[in-house]
Amino acid sequence: MEIPKRKNEFLPYFLLVVFIFLLILIVSYNGIGTKEHAELMDTDTYMRLVRVEQLAETGDWYDSVIHRSNYPYGDELHWTRPLDVMLLAGAFALTPFQGFEKGLLSWGIIISPLLGIFCLLALYWATLSVMNKNSRRLLWLLFISQSLLLQVFHFGRPDHHSLLMLLFIILLGCLFRMVNQPDRDKYVFLGGFIAAFSLWVSVETIFAIIMVFVTLGVLWLIRGKAYARQLLLFSLSIFVFSTVFLFIERPLSALFVVEYDKISIAYLFVFMLAVLATYLLTLIRNATMFSKLLKSTLILMASGLAIWLVFPSFYQGPMAGINKALIPIWLSKVSEAQPLWSLDPYHTTIIIGSIILFLLYLIYLVIKQRFETHFNLLIPIISGFVIFLPLGIYQIRMNYYLLLIIILLLAVFLDDIVTKVSNSKLSDISKPLLRVTVMLLFILGLPGIGVLTSLDNETKSETIQPDLKTLSSFLNDYQQTNPTAETILTFLDFGPEILYRTDFNVMAGPYHRNDQGILYIYEVMATNDFEQAWEMLNERSIDLVILCPKSSETSFYKKSPDQSTFYERLIAGEKPTFLEEIDLPQKLSESFIIFKVTMD
């Protein structure tokens, strides 16, 4: 990365921003951001540590099956190894001081905030060629004020989203330099490497890659042949690096396995077509704009048709092949996979307000004929906005990328306003006061409106966040005196933390590949026949059934208007002869009901 020339001005401001950033995250972690007594944030984070512990124990790089989940068949995850390696490296570094298990937990707690600090550095580097110093500083403030963005950097969230955000920022930095320096290859190859590595982390990166192609394609149409060469080199580098990463991720026997939720031969085929298509573009680089537009459209359509003929499910996205039965009972309730309007009023207000500000300032730049002044910034972020806006409306998780793109322009917008205040004819006393007021209104205005909106629409949650740590401690003690008890049936969101904290097998985790386990739990609890329930419990050798009626499990299990389901009958107090209720400490009995499955 390029180092700012005036370090004495950069460092104090950076340290102040980092301090505020970490303070926000610490308050969130110790407050409403995490469950009581839980070190980690959610189900994915516990399952990630289970996966890393298994890798450390077995050394089997190619084994993606969590064998104690969906017991006895196992739960094959769609995650890949880059974040696992980062977590292992930190755990091994802390092992001499804390031991491996505690070292892994400690590193898992702090890894995402550390990646967030690197994101701040990466933002400064990425925008060096397209923003002035004041805009970059304001960008930091806008970044740390975005509560939705900060969720990916929370303490206790060893998840790949923080790593993806860092890689996305670096890719944007490479793209800005490609736009600004079309005759240099350095950042084209670096961008290809970052894009391929990010795709290895998660295939949702495909949309960021499309953003790069759209940006360079538009520039090739309007500005000339140098960008055709960049398109070719970028395609070639992605293809080469993705091939390398595929060989690292998979054994030779699985190289040709087609999967859409992780890097596979399907993506290599798409990148191979991209190399061929962009090579053809270089052959028509000197044609007229109309000719280039017509021929590039034909090439794009032919490439799209080829993908459809060879891998028709590619266009269905990462969830291609998901068991349709999971959609109404599980996927439709996964919050990050829901559309924008399902968000709470606070975050919806911030996102929609940010979109409006983005568009208003963009229109202003066009009207004032200042578009060309910020051309190298605007072309990439407009391309990104066009791609991620519909994705952000369609799925909440894509708003991370959308918001980052938006605040790049909003930083320039705010700097423009502050500069106008500084150049105004106000008194020397009024100017600093007005600048601070403007900055506070700009940065905190939308969150403030969001808070007011939330107060108007505040609804009290009827569910609790159960104390799974205390439950796990009880289960460990129980297993000491009942060593034959090995397998638990409980709500799928409880599975990962119980796996992490105990040696029990569980029936399922909340992951789309585990349709067998998810449907098994649902069907057991949905039956209205005790005998059938017993047969299904016996089929998987279930030892304990754990219920938490005050939790979100109530929205997962089927409700029956006619005959009460197994779940409804159990929480109503009916006890079949094959279940024996276990006495619990008062603290646990307020939330949980645990049944021992007998041999009756």
Structure commentary:
The chain is mainly α. It is built from 24 helices and seven strands. It has helices at residues 7-30, 43-58, 82-98, 100-126, 133-144, 147-150, 160-180, 186-201, 206-223, 226-249, 265-283, 289-310, 326-329, 345-367, 375-394, 399-422, 430-456, 468-481, 495-501, 515-526, 530-539, 553-556, 566-571, 586-589, and strands at 65-66, 75-76, 487-489, 505-506, 544-547, 579-581, 593-597. The strands form two sheets. A five-stranded mixed β-sheet has the order 4-3-5-7-6, covered by helices on one side. Helix 19 links the parallel strand 3 and strand 4 (505-506). Residues 1-5 have low confidence and may be disordered.
Task: Name its key features.
600 residues; mainly alpha; five-stranded mixed beta sheet; two-stranded antiparallel sheet; 7 strands; 62% helix; 4% strand; globular; disordered N terminus
